[in-house]
Design a protein that fits this description.
Four Helix Bundle (Hemerythrin (Met), subunit A); mainly alpha; two-stranded antiparallel ribbon; elongated
Length: 303
């Protein structure tokens, strides 16, 4: 092992350079009246090695990160419940009700993990990495399952998922340039609208399929009033006849399809906002660098 020679001529074992730099910086910032002993110096180095260089397990495995991992583990279970046709009842619970409960539980962890991490001071790199991945896995899996069950149109789901990948890529590029693109109010509204829309569409399903037949034709994108099941359900709402459970499912499904338009519009709007913010930040950064370069050139130029 290599040894370092002190001023007194004694040989002492070397320590990692990073820890040495931290200890020497601390010593320069606050010089004690008496020179610290080698034991004190070694304790500082060991403390640095444990706390600064190698994060402890307690800092990684905490409640917010556990909730994020739970959300990831719920995703395949949710897909199995939504897409498995052999049973309409799981543990005595109807399939669409169980799907709603699982999805809302996973969505709730999305709020709790961030809230608890900030409140308890447990924000970690692992959590910052896994949280957006878990969000996209949950939303993408739910939307793709809805397309498979003919509860949502594929064109809308492609726009929503494509927007997620585009914004994620934009944030990665911005991070390379040292820029941070924070979540906008429209982006947060889009996430809330997604959760409500997916919940409504799952809750309205009958045997995993839409509650409307519409004479075998797809559910219209705009002309909802042309669907005979919807007109019948609405006549029961405003008329003297009693509203049946099927009527409620038709009304909930129609509300979900209407909310899907809101999700698509908010997704496109928020994506435009993110790209605009990135462009303005890049232009401002380049302008500032150019101004600093010009100022430095003027300062060194001979009079």
């Amino acid at each position: 092992m290599k040894r370092a020679v002190s001023h007194s001529g004694e040989k002492r074992e070397s320590v990692p350079k990073i820890c040495l730099s931290i200890v020497f910086t601390e010593a320069n910032a606050k010089v004690p009246e008496t020179e610290p002993s080698f034991d004190t110096f070694l304790k500082r180095v060991l403390h640095c090695d444990l706390d600064e260089l190698v994060p402890s397990q307690a800092n990684v495995v905490n409640l917010p990160n556990a909730l994020t991992l739970l959300r990831i583990f719920i995703v395949p279970l949710l897909v199995v419940v939504l897409l498995t046709p052999f049973s309409e009842s799981w543990f005595g619970v109807p399939r669409h009700i169980l799907g709603v409960l699982m999805f809302l539980s996973a969505a709730l962890t999305d709020y709790l993990d961030g809230h608890l991490a900030r409140k308890r001071g447990q924000v970690t790199r692992l959590g910052q990495l896994l949280d957006p991945i878990a969000d996209k896995l949950l939303i993408s899996a739910a939307l793709i399952s809805l397309v498979e069950n003919q509860l949502a149109p594929a064109w809308a789901v492609v726009i929503i998922i494509g927007r997620e990948f585009a914004v994620t890529g934009l944030r990665s590029i911005a991070a390379v340039d040292g820029l941070v693109i924070s979540a906008s109010k429209m982006g947060k509204f889009k996430m809330l609208a997604q959760v409500i829309t997916i919940t409504l569409l799952i809750a309205s399903s009958v045997a995993g399929k839409p509650p409307v037949a519409n004479f075998g034709r797809p559910f219209p994108a705009i002309e909802f009033w042309s669907v005979p099941e919807l007109r019948s359900a609405w006549s029961h709402v405003v008329g003297p006849e009693a509203i049946t459970p099927t009527d409620w499912q038709v009304l909930i499904y129609t509300a979900g399809r209407a909310m899907l338009w809101l999700v698509v519009i908010s997704a496109c709007t928020s994506m435009y906002g993110y790209f605009s913010s990135f462009y303005r930040a890049v232009v401002a950064d380049r302008t500032a660098k150019q101004q600093a370069k010009n100022a430095a050139a003027v300062a060194v130029s001979p009079e």
